[in-house]
Design a protein that fits this description.
With about 425 residues, the protein is mostly helical. Helix content is about 75%, strand content about 5%.
Length: about 425
């Protein structure tokens, strides 16, 4: 990784892309600290830390922008939810499937639809968060003069948050177009890292302030994080290589084929998406109840007791949803029938397996087995480490800022960024060779 970065800064074009990426990420982090006029962040921060588990999770993803009452308080959450909704609709709506097959033109249409859905979700989420601000007493009516009431301040805050969400989406798209890596993923990465960094600094201050237990808590947390990082990297890079042999073909005076290759099938091909899908669905009713009702609401009390974050039923449902979405996403990404057809078309075959339907069944059987293992791994990462952290550290800021799901996102984005950087360097080397 460090050698790749060293070589990247030696290349002028790659160095320019890295600097553009860092500049846009700096603008994003700056927007996470610019306060929205009319919000008292101290009041809302204490409200999140004491009561709202889900809002605390959203604040952690945005790098504490939500509890700071900042310009990018919503962050990339509406865009992520819009992308999830569109991916699910693509399977059911033939028109969206046509767009996917139209190349760049279809991609532009899908991107435009995603933007419209993002605006609608940002509007709904900004209204809910503004209501939450108002309930916590964090809205100030003395910002624009004595005649300004709470409704006007609330409308102003909603507009600013929607604008911030659109600006965040624009920054992510610019990173993707002119920088290195997926812009939205990098924004999430920076938000999680910054939240964890703030929590670690607070723990260090507590340790040096005379709290002896904070040192051991921090040391134990670091050891567990390193162990989980190693497990995530090991599984994320694991793959099953299916050997494929191509027969020799003579066309004219030239001979083609006669070579061996393999089909790489990743163990965790879906990455962190099944966890995001599962948690988004299971926590959506609780999030709506938290934003639009108070703690005395009957539905909120019932949901919090039986299906709230950390309850046994919640853990079981999350595990089942992760299993479902792992298979759902695997069917989208890996189509055994298409791969079998392509192998047969180019004169290839898998040793010991006949071409056609037997090859399709063989590939499908391998894909299902690997998907099951990957789903079990994701369910383990989503539930077990967080439970261990809470048993060891309790309701600690480190646990809230750097959950196991957050660590999976951080590792996946870091590995993908490294691959993108290596591909950029390889492409520049090829260009230099041709010149």
């Amino acid at each position: 990784m460090f050698e790749t970065l060293k070589n990247a800064f030696k290349n002028k074009d790659v160095r320019k892309k890295i600097l553009i990426t860092l500049a846009l990420l700096f603008i994003y982090r700056l927007g996470c600290w610019i306060p929205i006029p009319g919000i008292d962040p101290a009041v809302y921060a204490s409200s999140i830390q004491s009561n709202d588990t889900l809002l605390g999770l959203l604040s952690g993803i945005t790098g504490n922008a939500l509890q700071n009452g900042a310009l990018f308080a919503i962050g990339v959450t509406p865009y992520i939810n819009a992308s999830i909704i569109l991916q699910l609709l693509t399977v059911a709506i033939p028109k969206l499937q046509e767009y996917q097959k139209q190349g760049d033109e279809g991609k532009r249409k899908i991107t435009q639809i995603t933007r419209y859905i993002t605006i609608a979700l940002a509007l709904a989420q900004s209204i809910g968060i503004t209501v939450s601000y108002s309930r916590a007493g964090a809205l100030s009516t003395n910002v624009f003069g004595p005649l300004t009431n709470e409704f006007v301040i609330g409308m102003f805050v909603c507009v600013i948050m929607i604008t911030g969400a659109m600006l965040t989406m624009w920054l992510g798209e610019r990173i993707t177009d002119y920088g290195i890596g997926n812009g939205i993923s990098l924004l999430i990465f920076v938000g999680i890292i910054s939240s964890a960094g703030i929590a670690i600094i607070a723990k260090f201050q507590s340790a040096f302030g005379g709290n002896d237990t904070a040192i051991w808590e921090l040391l134990g947390f670091v050891i567990m994080v390193v162990a989980i990082f190693a497990l995530i990297v090991f599984v994320d890079l694991a793959e099953r290589r299916i050997p494929v042999q191509y027969a020799k073909q003579i066309k004219g005076r030239k001979q083609y084929g006669g070579q061996s290759t393999y089909i790489p099938v990743k163990v965790n091909a879906s990455g962190v998406l099944p966890i995001i899908f599962a948690t988004a669905i299971i926590t959506f009713p609780q999030m709506i109840a938290q934003l639009f009702t108070d703690a005395t609401n009957g539905f909120y009390i019932w949901w919090q007791k039986w299906l709230g974050v950390g309850t046994p039923i919640y853990s079981v449902l999350v595990a089942l949803l992760i299993l479902f979405f792992s298979y759902f996403y695997a069917q989208i990404e890996f189509n055994p029938e298409d791969i079998s057809r392509n192998i047969q078309q180019y004169g290839g075959f898998i040793n010991g397996i006949r071409p056609g339907k037997p090859t399709t069944e063989y590939l499908s059987r391998i894909s299902k087995r690997l998907t099951l293992f990957g789903a079990i791994f994701l369910a383990f990462i989503a539930l077990v480490p967080s439970l261990i952290f809470r048993l060891a550290l309790g309701a600690d800021s480190l646990v809230n800022a750097f959950s196991a799901t957050g660590m999976l996102i951080v590792v996946s984005v870091a590995l993908e960024f490294n691959k993108q950087l290596q591909s950029q360097l390889m492409m520049k080397q090829y260009k230099g060779f041709l010149k």
